[in-house]
């Protein structure tokens, strides 16, 4: 018999994260496009990001028939957060460039994110942006597949921190960090130290 789950954060009721999820406004609009394989992931950080940001929405799928309508939202300049050749590093908004971004974020493994780009030509045609200086991931449960790899929620928070500096969106990470800590505790300190701590190169 499955454990009762919170309908909002999708966590088991006895581990509900909703009390830690903020409701933070942003000038930037965030559109999260989640590959279906990520929707059932234990962390599902894209959902946590969408819940914590007032000006964000999350859609799950491979082909998004309404993408043209979402990208045409008036008052925003759409870009896709996707590190690739020619991607422009994000910088703070300026008075001469005051049109807020519609930041489209594919959510999935690199292979699945590339598949989303391939299956949605409108997405692939958007200007690409990337993070300039990447803060190391706080996802301590596994070794990053490559330097600079971040979970989706971390990438969104770092992007907003850059775009809307000096505003800080770190509070959006609170449920993510609690989830990581909870999994480490369930794993046991000894197991975590043996299997994860040394792999990250931590002292």
TrEMBL record:
Protein name: tRNA-uridine aminocarboxypropyltransferase
Segments forming domain DTW: 2-188
Pfam families on file: DTW
Species this chain originates from: Pseudomonas parafulva
Domain of life: Bacteria
Record SMART domains: DTW (SM01144)
Annotated EC: 2.5.1.25
Enzyme class per UniProt: transferase
Keywords, alphabetical: S-adenosyl-L-methionine, Transferase, tRNA processing
């Amino acid at each position: 018999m499955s454990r009762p789950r919170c309908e909002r954060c999708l966590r088991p009721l006895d581990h509900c994260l909703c009390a830690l999820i903020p409701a933070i406004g942003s000038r930037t609009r965030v559109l999260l496009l989640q590959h279906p394989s990520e929707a059932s992931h234990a962390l599902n950080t894209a959902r946590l990001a969408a819940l914590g940001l007032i000006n964000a929405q999350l859609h799950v799928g491979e082909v998004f028939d309404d993408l043209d309508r979402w990208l045409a939202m008036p008052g925003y300049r759409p870009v896709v957060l996707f590190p690739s050749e020619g991607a422009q590093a994000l910088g703070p908004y300026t008075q001469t460039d005051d049109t807020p971004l519609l930041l489209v974020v594919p959510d999935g493994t690199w292979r699945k994110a590339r598949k989303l780009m391939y299956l949605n030509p409108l997405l692939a045609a958007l200007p690409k942006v990337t993070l300039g200086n990447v803060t190391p991931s706080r996802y301590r449960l596994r070794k990053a597949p490559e330097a600079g790899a971040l979970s989706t929620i971390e990438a969104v928070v770092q992007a907003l921190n850059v775009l809307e500096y000096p505003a800080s969106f770190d509070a959006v990470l609170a449920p993510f960090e609690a989830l990581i800590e909870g999994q480490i505790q369930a794993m046991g300190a000894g197991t975590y130290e043996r299997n994860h701590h040394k792999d990250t190169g931590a002292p």
